[in-house]
Amino acid sequence: MSRDIKKYNGAKLFGSSLLTMLCCVVAMAVTSCNKDFEGVPTTKYNNDSLAVSAGKKKVLYLILDGVRGSVLSTMKPVNVVKINKNAIYTFSGLNDSTAVVPTNAGSWTDMITGAPVKSHKVISEDFAGNQLAQFPSIFTRLKQVNPNLKTVSLAASSSFDTNLAGDASEHSLFSSDAAVQTALKSKIGTTDADLIVAQFHSADVAGTAGGYHAGTTNYITAITTLDGYLGEALNALKARPTYKEENWLVIIASNKGGVDTSTPITDATLFGDPAKNTYVALYNPAYDAKPYNKPNTNEIAYTGKAPRFQSTTTTNIYATLANTTVGNFGSTGDYTMMLKIRVDETTSQTWPQFIGKSPSTADVIANGWEFAMSGNNYFFDYGNSTRPALKVIRDAQWHTIAVKFYMVGSSRFLTVFNDGVKETGGTNANTGLPIYPYDITGRSVSNTNPLRIGSGSNKPTNFLIRDLAIFNMAIPDNDLITYMKREVNGSNPYFANLLGWWPCNEGSGTVLKDRSGKGNDFTITGNVAWTSHSDLSPNISPSISGVVYRTVPNGVDLPFTIYNWFKVLPPASWGLSGRSFSPVYLSLSTN
């Protein structure tokens, strides 16, 4: 008798359609070469066409606080590698598919309620303002719909135990991860519980103290220890006297990642945020490996419509503000201004302005400022300052530009950022010192001229502009590097600091609306052409649909998965936002 391994993709759905799938004919068993953790005797499946539903359904849910998926991917811990051979898994998971800054409390709540943060409202570690009465835990829901199901919670964090585990059939708080692990192995070996949840916190403590990256020894040590716990837990399952009559789904998931300053962020979408990066595995010995990878965000085009400011030697198209105080940066205080621009002009020109606030629209004098072209490059002139040519932007590609004004004691400086890179070049011919950061102490650049988009120099210009924003603060360098490449929206952490924000995406008309709420709209003079654009650019991380973020497991997906494993179809009134992920089953044929 020989056994041949085949992959069977017959399970079309794993979520809301699982109830139907359980009744379908699915040839499934476990192969002889996957000996890592399965421990499932061949007689259990033995060409049983209903093997997918064999055994009493049970769930082991292990929550690993602060374990970044990308770090696990690099480490390749021995038990994680074994688990992934029989799992739906991802190293590119998201703790949440919104831009809300992750917390332990909020992430746990996603993972235990299945409701999104906009519903459960847990955004701070003290659970203040929570809506858990409307969006209760999975322990509460299972108690309501099937009181015969026994649930157990073992927690290393008191706030988890207090706020989320109260309705478990049994819930206990422990002083360390090691104590949680000891209790977990004991429960696995002796309990008749249907759902066991264990929460571990040591990796998050180590990451907070030293950094959530592979260069932090204590962080790596904590993760290695947790990986050992995973192996012990699965071996304990395998040793259960009743294991042959049971069907365990093992969910292993980190609640969130953490800040990593050791590696530059190259992906400005949520997938590039190390604090949101998680590992998720849905393990069952009957599953074949099925990885979920993040989409290639570099292949998402920047699309929309933008006003084309095209001028010639005789005509100009420009836009101005009626409120002439906007754009006055004075002699003190902190500000940040940023914009996105695509220059399509084919003729190299010197000094045609593309945005500025100056008594002269053809040049800069002492109390004005401007961004202007310098051949193929651009420069920023502040009060007739020394102005080295900066990055090439006359290349028909989208670029992002920002300038930041900031105080250091009684001194004031400005610096420029190009496509997410802080400008450090340029040398003052008189002093030999770097131009940036540029010392503007005591220099007041304010006037009563309107803030203007477009040239006034009667030189050929041709550019599209989008997402112009001015903030009343100096955004920290790391955040500015990240957020200047993204489109401004309400999830930007500095949205409340906007003095003006003009997306420039109306698509028609002669008004560029101020979406900051300040009401300072630009009025366009001249016959402006609204131009459709759809461009791939490494310099811009366009806003992407939430559907794209849901292509990998999120924390809210896991309760939805558990409910379906227990044949509970959550009604719409529960307000869940989880989705299902289809497994690939192993099939054993006997000749």
Provide a quick synopsis of the model.
This protein has 591 residues and is an alpha+beta fold.
Indicate the CATH topology of the largest domain. Alkaline Phosphatase, subunit A
Distance between the termini: 6 Å
How would you sum up the global shape? elongated
Low-confidence stretches are 1-34, 39-53
* Number of separate helices: 14
Overall average residue pLDDT: 87
Name the helicity range: 10-25%
- CATH-level-2 architecture of the largest domain: 3-Layer(aba) Sandwich
Q: Rg from C-alpha positions?
A: 29 Å
- CATH level-four homologous superfamily name of the largest domain: Alkaline Phosphatase, subunit A
Largest sheet at a glance? 9 strands, antiparallel
Secondary-structure class: alpha+beta
CATH C-level class of the largest domain:
Alpha Beta
Please give the domain count: 2
Q: How many DSSP-defined strands?
A: 27
